[in-house]
Specification:
Elements (H helix, E strand, L loop, with lengths): L9 H13 L5 H10 L1 H8 L5 H22 L9 H14 L10 H14 L4 H26 L6 H11 L2 H11 L6 H4 L2 H21 L1 H6 L5 H9 L3 H27 L6 H27 L29
Length: 326
């Protein structure tokens, strides 16, 4: 893959070619859907000035994450007990058994295996363990969500927020960005409670904003989301609930900023750990801003309202010029 900066439109074109070759896009409708997602906005916002190869790898992860989410949520999967678990089992084997997926039913696992091999290359064992734990927790939460939905269980706001934090796939994506954004945590900094709080806050912002723009699609397929739960528990119309959710997003984004600032200004740590925390805090802030800007412009959801975060200001700290792959 070339290390030169991507020409306008080249990134999306390369992503589409990869998605076709990987079997994630099989017809013109799926190609149009991928193009409408504008994943280039998300990835370029998260990795401004990043190496072309790193940007491309991150974009592939984003496309795979969206494809998997759509496959489970929008195809009616899970109405039969065990259906989702059968679908996710090959994904689990990729990470826990290093098993080579085979057969048409495991095509999605083959995509994960290739992404995992490319991303894990050169990363320490501790990072591999963290990514594996985070991705398996995402699969656990997804299966739990589908089972609750199938059984007609309506979660409380508090319970929903805890579950949504795990189903939004932000934790694995932040792990990927440690690799592609060159902001790897040490074992000590990864265990810092402030890092955990920052990751949770970023996941909440992304999950809640996603719920805000996907509310119409979720309602159409009979799925609960944050807007519906706020409306139900507060006894207010959906329009008022959307305004309240937007306010919750703004408040949680303040938490991201405050915790990131605390990490950037941390003292009493070795210099390399301080620098690592600063780079990591910047990555999380950039992903948060990029997610909000992407959701405001993406055509992934039908009739998505352009929320008050449509012009979310990006993190402006220490931008680097675009780097070239070695």
């Amino acid at each position: 893959m070339s290390g030169s900066p991507s020409a306008p439109g080249r990134g999306p074109a390369e992503l589409l070619l990869w998605a076709r070759d990987s079997g994630l896009v099989t017809d013109s409708a799926e190609a149009r859907r991928l193009a409408a997602m504008r994943l280039d906005l998300l990835v370029e916002g998260a990795l401004p000035g990043g190496r072309a190869g790193h940007v491309a790898l991150t974009a592939r992860w984003a496309a795979f994450i969206c494809w998997l989410d759509d496959r489970i949520d929008r195809s009616g999967m899970g109405t039969v007990p065990g259906e989702v678990e059968k679908f996710t089992a090959p994904l689990r084997r990729v990470l826990t058994c290093a098993a080579a997926p085979s057969g048409p039913s495991a095509a999605h696992a083959a995509v994960l295996a290739r992404l995992w091999e490319r991303t894990a290359e050169g990363m320490p064992a501790a990072w591999r363990e963290r990514f594996t734990a985070d991705y398996l927790d995402f699969l656990d939460a997804t299966e739990e969500e589908i089972a609750l939905r199938r059984d007609g269980v309506r979660l409380s706001l508090e319970a929903y927020v805890r579950l949504r934090r795990r189903t939004i796939t932000v934790q694995p994506m932040l792990d990927v960005l440690e690799r592609t954004g060159r902001a790897a945590l040490t074992e000590e900094t990864a265990a810092d409670s402030r890092v955990r709080d920052l990751r949770w806050a970023a996941a909440d912002v992304a999950g809640w904003a996603n719920d805000l723009v996907s509310a119409a699609d979720d309602t159409a397929v009979g799925q609960d989301n944050l807007v519906a739960i706020v409306a139900r528990e507060s006894g207010i119309p959906a329009a008022a609930a959307r305004i309240r959710v937007a306010a919750l997003i703004d408040k949680r984004r303040d938490d991201v900023r405050a915790t990131a600032t605390a990490l950037r200004t941390a003292s009493g740590l070795p210099r390399d750990e301080r620098e690592g925390l600063r780079r990591y805090a910047a990555i999380v802030e950039r992903l948060t801003a990029a997610t909000l800007n992407w959701l405001a412009a993406s055509g992934r959801f039908t009739g998505a309202p352009r929320g008050p975060f449509a012009a979310a200001p990006p993190f402006t700290g220490s931008a680097r010029p675009r780097e070239r792959d070695s």
